[in-house]
Amino acid sequence: MLILYYRSTCPFHYKVLDTLEELGLHAEERDIADPAVAAELVAKGGKQQVPYLVDSDRGISMYESADIIAYLREQYAKH
Q1: Global pTM?
Q2: pLDDT by residue (tens digit) across 57-74?
Q3: Which pLDDT belongs to residue 78?
């Protein structure tokens, strides 16, 4: 399962969404505007930075849109 933590005002979040759509993937989106979600993000990643991707199937979590996009392409693009 893919989970994407985001803030609606973050333009980098939309780059990740574009890549998810391009690859035909779905991620559960969690908006850190909700204080409980923000606290959850800090508990998982240590800081309140977005976008933050969790790939629970592969045990991977990461910040930085460019890293997330590269990871998604590497792991999920149909070769």
Answers
A1: 0.94
A2: 999 999 999 999 999 999
A3: 81
Exposed / middle / buried, residue 58 (Cβ in 10 Å: 0-12, 13-18, 19+): exposed
Indicate the angle between helix axes 65-76 and 11-23, nearest 10 degrees: 10
Domains of the chain: residue spans and CATH? 2-64 (3.40.30.10)
User: Looking at beta carbons, which pairs linking 27-31 to residues 24 or more positions away fall under 8 Å?
Assistant: 27/2, 27/3, 27/53, 28/1, 28/2, 28/3, 28/4, 29/3, 29/4, 30/3, 30/4, 30/5, 30/6, 31/6, 31/7
Residue in the structure block whose two tokens are 């800090």? 42
* Sheet of strand 52-55: strand arrangement: 28-31, 2-6, 52-55, 60-63
